[in-house]
Give the backbone structure.
Amino acid sequence: MLITLLVFLPLFGFLVNGAIALGSKADSKHPPAVLTGAIATLAMAGSFVLALVLNAKLRALGGEPMAIEESLFSWIRLGTHSVDFGFRFDRLSAAFTLVITGVGSLIHLYSIGYMSHDSGVARYFAYLNLFCFMMLNLVLGQTLPHVFLGWEGVGLASYLLIGFWFRDGEKVRAGQKAFVMNRIGDLGFLLAMFVGFHAVGTLDAVALGQSVMAPKLAMLFGVLIFLACTGKSAQLPLFTWLPDAMAGPTPVSALIHAATMVTSGVYLLARLQPVIAGSPATIALIGGVGAATALIAAILACFQSDIKKILAYSTISQLGFMFAACGVGAFESGVFHVMTHAFFKALLFLGAGSVIHALSGNQDIFRMGGLRKSLPFTFWTFSAGWAAILGLPPFSGFFSKDEIIHDALVSRHGSLVLSGVLLFSALLTAFYMTRLYVLVFFGDSRLSAKEKAHVHESPFVMTIPLMVLAGASLAGGWFGAPVELASYEKAVRAPASAHTLVMVLSVAAALIGAFVARARYSRNTDSEPVLDPFRIDRFYGQVFGRGVYRLSDAIGRVLEETLVQGFLRGTAAIVDLSGNLIRTVQTGSAQTYLLMMVLAVAAVVSWIFFGVTGYGKF
Amino acid sequence: MIAFEPWMMLVVSVLIFCIGLFGLIVRKNLLVMLMCVELMLNGANLSFVAFSKMHQLIEGHLSVLFVMTVAAAESAVGLGLVIALFRTLRTVDSDQIQLLRD
Amino acid sequence: MDYRLLAFFIFSTIAVLGSLMVVLKKNPVASAFSLVIVFFSFAGLYALMAAHLVAALQILVYTGAIMVLFVFVIMLLNQDNPVEDLRASSGVFKGFAALCTGALAYFLIRVALLAREVTPRGSLNDEKIEELGGNVRVISESLFSDHLFQFELTSFLLLGAIVGTIALAKRKTVKGEAGT
């Protein structure tokens, strides 16, 4: 009963706030943020308390496998197969549930202050509670269809919240972009469920994860699941929606696009871990994509000037770390990093939100500076987050990031290259975070006069969550990895000296990155051009573009200009011709489509009854 | 001597269904197209009752009741759409309504 | 000759010819009245299979309600020039469509012929139904016990259809006014 209550409390908050939002629509006076916020926050805090209680019960339970299960009803019945609607609370779910409800409650509390000036505050809290409800379904669902329900639900909530200020077309488009790119991944999830059901005949998440599939099916299943993860968790081919998703309110970015939703890919991999890890090709793909994402996103983060975009790219990069961990078979390190990352990235986002709130919407780090004195609470808590993401020793990021780099080096699936890439990404992380930190909080103030007059420290309702999260970022790493997953063949035990070496190297990388950034940006703030949005493009141009230019110059010198031209024209003509040919089929007349459908149905009917099953005996 | 048997109904139902389908494909008048949909639904209903008879089960009849409900809803909404389309485009010719192409 | 076989042939011939007329008649009104004929003959076919409730509902719902709706809409639109329907589709298109649907019909009839030797899965033959109190009673008992939930769901469907139709057919209010 407790799990059900835990999951449905946020839904209750959503319904109440939704009713308030609908009821107050005609009224020009919006409901007070304190009231709606209190409802939402209390719902979340209640869930958090329940999660703590359940966690204690789980630990008292002992035995293997530890799990508390609650089946509510039979959801889908197909012949002899049945999919139950129910929840399972085991250690992996417990870790995620605690993070979601804990960080979620803090962010709800923070939002009361952040959204106090907004007229859509009831709608905001309703969406936020809806998100938490769906996210809890995602991590507590017993079966993959249930997880998928949550998976789609968080996508919906994310879409609604990115486009929260729906009068701004840009933001609505950002929401649509996120939604559409997630769809690509969701297709992978669906197909993976088909493959899994075909191979094993069950959709129970744990049973499926521990099943034994034929190697080819296991690979297909793993790759499809990973495709789903690349969408939701913003990995390499599909990551571009996440920076745009920063159009939403900042607490949303902190909760959904940093702490919880984007880590659901890691949850999924960890949940299905044995079968995923059983396929060497899949796991190599995951590791490679994760490391590449970590590196590329870190590079991109160095060229941003919008405070939230830097943090968004940073999130992508950190997610890359988590996937790299999964990709070397160290799933529990990945989950550990999910937890610590949730603390410090939520803290950084909320700190950034506090800065933006103080500056009435200014997000350009080159137009900040010297905020150390005027925003003391924000500064000190942000410092904790900064130290944590850099991986400086007593802070939480140190433990988890270090663990990942170490695993990437010594694991059977890892390699020197992989850990080297991750180490370099860590260096870049230190660089861009220090760049942001120095430009925002140190040096001379570069605010406009109007902003200077207005700048103020945020109210306590916003700084208290910051302080709690700062404490968590400081201490979160001491607990160690929250789950012990039956780690797959991590066996190759390295000497302890490797661990020390990695520790020293990663701290050194962080310090180098930090010092380079400090040296560059502590004095150069004014000479730096204010904002150059084309830097990313220029970067792409320098790295990829120049190579292509050289190549094409060579080709141009070797081949006759006309030959190339003729070839290009010929290609264009072929494309044009085939396009026109296919175009005739696309008449726009529904009836033509219908005719083709009938043709196909006739073919399928004849095939099924007279070809495959042989009922007809032609 | 041949006696009447339920499977003969299936042949009729297939014929009616396919005639309706043919009409749906070739007719351009939206109203007639909706009628053709009704024909197809009726063909399917007939096969439900015939199968119900063959298998000596009652569920086929229930399916027919539900199909009738759906058909009623479908034609109400469909005709509402036709009226709305006619109001904006002044036509019920499906060839003139090719918004899918643009 | 078995009178049931005779009735079957009469009704099914009327049904097939009538549906052909629905498709081939150029004037929508003529199509609509052909459709009425088809519906009546269907009711006959149902009665032939001792499906009395369905036969009655066929006449009530289809002929009574749906057809009236169609005729009303035809009158409401009152087109000056009935769209020249069949001429609008090209001959090739029509031929191809006929070929496709013909092929589909052929395959489906082959499938239907497979159903000649079916072993009944239930035991509700005509005598049993009589014993239980007749066709209507048996259907009603099943509908309101085993399938009550689905039955209630259809009420939602109908409600949705009503709301949708009203929303569609409602005339727009004054232009420029922010409406839904």
Remarks:
- Chain B touches chain C through 75 residues (CB under 8 Å).
- Chain B has three helices and no strands.
- Chain B has a mean pLDDT of 86.
- The helical segments of chain B are 6-26, 30-55, 59-89.
